[in-house]
């Protein structure tokens, strides 16, 4: 054990005070007949300077100066003394301050989440690709407003398809046979009738135009039209309108689809040929129109247009479908959970509006499990502490960190963004906050096992607890907050905001814990425990309660019995009082806690009538005894410790290898389980044969745009995108420029792409290649000039402004009105840009892994185009809007994850080095953190689950870094702060395991209980998070309690002043600084 000499404290008769030296003999200064010594109010009146220093940590070199023990102590000691003397006042002050801040947050709506961020919150702001997309969107909006104000032309109402409002169905044969069978086709027609008969269809459908006027709704895209044709009785003409009877020759219709795949491939299975002409799956589309009345473009407030369609028509269709298929939601679930099947046919349907609506419903349900997590944590805290009072105070402290953190986050740090992702902070703070509570409360419980100089009164116990627990919590809070703060540098704004808020919450938790728990523990000791003792002594409940607050006299109890009662250690009743005046040097040099005078390794048992100056092993709780005895004997065994270190080193190597293989997902991320109807729809998007009806990624070429000036933009406000900058060199009025802008459209049609996203080697860059539909305004202008004006093209002899005026005349005519969004003018009439639009061969939606090679091909094409362009049009830019910007976001998530890990490891090493003041201990702890991260990300994410580094995994990696440091930091610091009498590695490991093992275990259980509630959520993001947080805690627990003790027992510093210790350097610096100040 940690060797120290026992300091006996001899009990003396009540009403007398006796000072004893280290040999137990009475001091010559002892006086009989004096009043009892009240150690809880004025210990400085009776203690020697050395005893005062050991008791309170006060460094008082004046032996003869009699003053209060905490008069010159630091803030923590003074605050603890104040909490002891006025616990109700201090407790109430802290409590009311938190309530006041919470009220400000509530009244000022500071906790209101951003719901109007649109689709820009995850888009990187300061990036060339994003700037081009933002510049294009801004320029289009400016041009649309100008055109709308001047009446020069606009996009015809509902002439385009609304992607968010369009309703689509999939029908699949369950047994692998053809879906074009009688029963399935009759089912398709029944659903078609249900959809088409829903009132409002004609008010929201996409319109077809004959050039100027709308002629009616665009025909729905459905095989029902062809399998149920109508026949004119007079002429016998067959019309494919879906209004007739089911045709008898089904194979003939399928053969028609197969013959003209460009037109009918939309209905065919991608494996149609491989299956011998058997079509297992087909689809139906009901296109809705945009822009809606009051909107100037398809992407003008796109979500608002989608919601108009949804509320006006889709909601009614959804209600009919729910009724038709008896779709009902179970508890905290959604009607879409579960696949539809009827007569051997699987049915799936999808609309962007319906998915968004269901997402909000699911998010609300899933987040309700946060309440269950809070309740579960409170229950476990009650069981661990054995007190509902302490558990309730601890939960209040954790929950109070939210409004206080949000107040600092928004008022002091001026961060405006508060999004859904930051709700995950609830689960992070529950784990970290519970850890802080356990460390503080366990330190208070363990203070009862310390020598009498610590365990003698509530004041000494609170002083000891505050100093020991506050340092341990501060170091872990600092490393965890630093880990989260590193993510605040992320390019992805929600990740940055999440890191910033989480870092603030960690420090707020620390501050609230340090301020809240000293008075809370005093109230707990006086009220809860003393009230229980008073009731045990036969007092009434009211008297017991008042006595607990010191309102009535102390309970009369047998002194000898009190000396043996572990639960009464530290109670502030009268009785025998004795003070040690001699302190062992080895013990007094310990910095553990509030100057504890002995260590756990000098455990022994006290005898009736006197108190031993060492801890009693019989008082240890079972978990503390387990970690001190059998567990320590295992991990510190001379042979086993090297086996454990070698095993975890191999695990680290495997984790590093697997983690290095993480990359952006190859497939679109799934946000729902496969049993969710719309997720099943998304999983089958790519099963069909390519056709002109498929949604592909649109790409625009712009001439005239410069970029966006983002100086002064608030990065946390996604609505701020900067100021549009135009290309000062742009001039399309020259003859060469006009010819080039026409030729550029032909270049597009002939461009090739070898990337897999385009279809592989030799594929076209744009859909249908030479027959591609390219919106080329300059080609239309040429036709207008040559045919309508009967003038030669290119137009010659015009100044830039005159050429712009001629283009405006063209746009205002019936010939040019369809191109109003492709020739953009500002309010002065100057030409801002020329835009060429086309459809790429890249299927939407896609991932960064697929879209990056295609983006590179497009960039190379534009670079080549600019290289041969004449003056004035040599700065073309290309954008695919969301597809390219989302590609950059996915890449940034991977990049920032690895950068964050590197930064966190470096900063964690510095913090650990400064907290442990030992090079070896700091390096071993840093390796432990690395082992936790690589085990979770490499072995867990990549190896076991087979996931890539998507959004969920990237966010979880941020949280993983923060949670992975706590346990190893606790143990490393407890090891380095062990009493000086623990002069071997094994004894220091034993001390660390006994003091911190129980807190780490409780924290791990609490965090797992909190995170396990997420397994019940519907969104796969939360279930992924549940796995990752569970894996993080299990990995951190294993590395911290197996690898770290074994590594420290094998290679750690044997004492406080080994060759790797930084303490001599620290003391030298402090001494020099003091000498300099003395001069």
Short description:
With 1079 residues, the chain is an alpha+beta fold. Mean pLDDT is 80; it is low at 3-71 and 539-613.
Describe the structure.
This protein has 1079 residues and is an alpha+beta fold. It has 34 helices and 22 strands. The strands form 9 sheets. Strands 9-4-12-11 form a 4-stranded antiparallel β-sheet, with helices on both faces. Helix 12 packs across helix 13, helix 16 crosses helix 31 and helix 22 packs antiparallel against helix 33. The longest helix is centred in the middle third of the chain and has 44 residues.
SS content category: alpha+beta
Q: What portion of residues is helical?
A: 40-55%
Q: What is the oligomeric state here?
A: single chain
Strand content: 5-15%
The total strand number stands at 22
Shape: elongated
Given the structure, what is the number of helices? 34
Distance between the termini: 45 Å
Instruction: Provide the residue-averaged pLDDT.
Output: 80
Taking strands numbered 1, 2, ... along the chain, how are they ordered across the largest sheet?
9-4-12-11
Low-confidence runs of at least 5 consecutive residues: 3-71, 539-613
Q: Round the Cα radius of gyration to an integer and report it.
A: 38 Å
Summarize the biggest pleated sheet: 4 strands, antiparallel
Key words describing this protein structure:
single chain, 1079 residues, alpha+beta, four-stranded antiparallel sheet, 34 helices, disordered N terminus
List the helices and strands and how they pair.
Elements: E1 9-10, E2 18-20, H1 49-56, H2 75-85, H3 87-107, H4 128-150, E3 160-161, E4 167-173, H5 182-196, H6 201-204, E5 207-209, E6 214-217, H7 224-227, E7 230-231, E8 238-239, H8 250-259, H9 261-264, E9 281-286, E10 289-290, H10 302-324, E11 340-342, E12 345-350, H11 352-367, H12 369-385, H13 388-412, H14 425-447, H15 452-455, H16 458-487, H17 493-536, H18 541-548, H19 559-564, E13 578-580, H20 585-588, E14 610-611, H21 622-635, H22 640-659, H23 677-683, E15 696-703, E16 705-709, E17 723-726, H24 735-750, E18 752-753, E19 763-764, H25 777-788, H26 800-812, E20 823-825, E21 831-843, H27 848-867, E22 877-879, H28 882-916, H29 919-944, H30 951-963, H31 966-976, H32 985-1012, H33 1020-1051, H34 1063-1078
Parallel strand pairs: 2-13
Antiparallel strand pairs: 1-14, 3-10, 4-9, 4-12, 5-6, 7-8, 11-12, 15-21, 15-22, 16-17, 18-19, 20-21
Helix pairs in contact: 2-3, 2-16, 2-17, 3-13, 3-17, 12-13, 12-14, 12-32, 13-14, 13-17, 14-16, 14-17, 14-32, 16-17, 16-28, 16-30, 16-31, 17-18, 21-32, 22-29, 22-33, 24-25, 27-28, 28-29, 28-30, 29-30, 29-31, 29-33, 30-33, 31-32, 31-33, 32-33
């Amino acid at each position: 054990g940690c060797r120290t000499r026992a300091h006996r404290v001899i009990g003396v008769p009540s009403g007398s005070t006796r000072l004893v030296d280290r040999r137990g003999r009475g001091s010559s200064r002892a006086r009989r007949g004096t009043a009892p010594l009240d150690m809880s109010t004025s210990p400085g009146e009776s203690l020697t300077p050395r005893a005062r220093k050991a008791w309170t940590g006060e460094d008082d070199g004046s032996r003869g100066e009699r003053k209060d023990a905490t008069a010159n102590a630091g803030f923590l000691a003074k605050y603890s003394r104040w909490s002891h003397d006025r616990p109700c006042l201090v407790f109430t002050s802290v409590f009311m301050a938190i309530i006041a801040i919470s009220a400000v947050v509530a009244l000022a709506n500071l906790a209101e989440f951003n719901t109007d961020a649109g689709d820009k919150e995850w888009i990187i702001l300061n990036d060339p690709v994003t700037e081009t997309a933002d510049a294009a969107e801004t320029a289009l909006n400016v041009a649309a407003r100008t055109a709308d104000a001047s009446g020069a032309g606009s996009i015809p109402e509902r002439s385009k398809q609304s992607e968010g409002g369009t309703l689509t169905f999939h029908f699949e044969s369950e047994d692998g046979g053809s879906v074009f069978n009688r029963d399935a086709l009759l089912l398709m027609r029944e659903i078609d009738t249900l959809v088409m008969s829903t009132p409002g269809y004609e008010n929201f459908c996409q319109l077809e135009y004959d050039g100027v006027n709308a002629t009616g709704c665009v025909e729905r895209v459905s095989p029902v039209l062809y399998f149920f044709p109508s026949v004119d009785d007079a002429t016998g003409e067959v019309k494919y309108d879906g209004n007739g009877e089911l045709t008898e020759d089904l194979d003939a219709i399928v053969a028609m689809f197969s013959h003209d795949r460009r037109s009918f491939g939309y209905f065919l299975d991608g494996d149609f040929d491989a299956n011998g002409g058997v079509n297992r799956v087909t689809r139906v589309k009901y296109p809705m129109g945009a822009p809606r009345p009051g909107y100037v473009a398809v992407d003008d407030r796109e979500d608002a247009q989608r919601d108009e369609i949804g509320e006006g028509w889709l909601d009614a269709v959804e209600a009919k479908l729910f009724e038709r298929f008896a779709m009902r939601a179970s508890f905290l679930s959604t009607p879409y959970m579960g696949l539809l099947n009827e007569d051997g046919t699987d049915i799936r349907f999808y609309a962007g509006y319906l998915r968004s609506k269901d997402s909000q419903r699911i998010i609300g349900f899933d987040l309700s499990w946060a309440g269950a997590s809070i309740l579960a944590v409170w229950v476990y805290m009650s069981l661990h502490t054995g007190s509902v009072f302490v558990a309730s105070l601890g939960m209040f402290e954790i929950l109070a960190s939210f409004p206080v953190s949000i107040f600092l986050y928004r008022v002091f740090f001026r961060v405006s963004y508060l999004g859904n992702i930051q709700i995950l902070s609830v689960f992070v703070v529950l784990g970290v906050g519970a850890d802080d509570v356990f460390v503080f409360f366990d330190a208070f419980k363990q203070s009862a096992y310390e020598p009498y100089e610590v365990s003698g009164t509530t004041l000494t116990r609170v002083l000891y607890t505050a100093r020991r627990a506050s340092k341990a919590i501060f170091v872990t809070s600092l490393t965890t907050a630093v880990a989260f703060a590193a993510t605040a540098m992320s390019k992805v704004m929600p990740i940055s905001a999440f890191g910033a808020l989480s870092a603030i919450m960690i420090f707020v938790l620390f501050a609230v814990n340090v301020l809240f728990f000293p008075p809370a523990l005093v109230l707990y000791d006086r009220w809860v425990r003393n009230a229980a003792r008073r009731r045990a002594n036969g007092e009434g409940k009211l008297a017991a309660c008042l006595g607990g607050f010191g309102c009535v006299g102390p309970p009369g109890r047998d002194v000898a019995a009190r000396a043996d009662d572990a639960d009464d250690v530290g109670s502030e009743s009268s009785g025998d009082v004795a003070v040690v005046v001699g302190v062992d040097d080895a013990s007094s040099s310990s910095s553990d806690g509030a100057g504890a005078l002995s260590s756990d390794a000098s455990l022994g048992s006290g005898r009736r009538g006197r108190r031993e100056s060492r801890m009693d092993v019989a008082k240890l709780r079972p978990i503390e005894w387990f970690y001190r005895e059998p567990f320590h004997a295992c991990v510190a065994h001379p042979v086993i410790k090297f086996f454990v270190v070698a095993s975890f080193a191999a695990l680290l190597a495997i984790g590093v290898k697997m983690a290095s293989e993480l990359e952006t997902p190859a497939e679109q991320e799934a946000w729902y389980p496969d049993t969710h109807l719309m997720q099943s729809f998304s999983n089958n998007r790519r099963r069909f044969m390519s056709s002109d009806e498929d949604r592909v990624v649109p790409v625009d070429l712009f001439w005239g745009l410069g970029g966006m000036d983002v100086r002064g933009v608030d990065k946390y406000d996604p609505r701020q995108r900067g100021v549009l900058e135009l290309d000062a060199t742009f001039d399309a009025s020259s003859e060469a420029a006009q010819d080039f802008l026409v030729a550029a459209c032909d270049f597009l049609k002939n461009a090739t792409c070898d990337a897999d996203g385009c279809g592989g080697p030799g594929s076209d860059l744009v859909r249908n290649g030479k027959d591609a539909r390219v919106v080329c305004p300059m080609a239309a202008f040429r036709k207008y000039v040559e045919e309508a004006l009967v003038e030669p093209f290119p137009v010659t002899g015009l100044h830039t402004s005159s050429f712009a005026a001629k283009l405006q005349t063209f746009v205002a005519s019936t010939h040019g009105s369809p191109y109003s969004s492709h020739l953009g003018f500002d309010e002065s009439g100057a030409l801002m840009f020329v835009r060429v639009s086309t459809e790429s061969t890249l299927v939407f939606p896609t991932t960064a892994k697929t879209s990056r090679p295609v983006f590179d091909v497009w960039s190379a094409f534009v670079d080549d185009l600019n290289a041969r362009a004449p003056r004035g049009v040599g700065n073309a830019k290309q954008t695919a809007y969301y597809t390219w910007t989302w590609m950059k976001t996915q890449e940034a998530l991977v990049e920032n994850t690895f950068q964050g890990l590197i930064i966190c490891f470096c900063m964690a090493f510095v913090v650990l080095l400064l907290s442990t003041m030992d090079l070896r201990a700091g390096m071993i702890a840093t390796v432990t953190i690395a082992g936790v991260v690589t085990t979770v990300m490499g072995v867990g994410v990549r190896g076991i689950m087979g996931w890539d580094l998507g959004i969920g995994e990237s966010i979880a990696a941020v949280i993983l870094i923060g949670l992975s440091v706590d346990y190893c930091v606790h143990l490393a610091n407890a090891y380095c702060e062990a009493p000086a009498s623990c002069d071997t590695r094994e004894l220091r490991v034993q001390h660390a395991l006994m003091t911190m093992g129980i807190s780490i275990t409780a924290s791990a259980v609490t965090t797992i209980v909190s995170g396990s509630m997420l397994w019940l959520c519907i969104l796969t993001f939360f279930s992924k998070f549940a796995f990752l947080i569970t894996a993080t805690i299990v990995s951190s627990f294993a590395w911290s309690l197996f690898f770290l003790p074994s590594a420290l027992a094998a290679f750690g510093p044997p004492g406080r002043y080994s060759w790797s210790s930084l303490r001599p350097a620290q003391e030298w610096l402090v001494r020099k600084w003091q000498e300099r100040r003395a001069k």
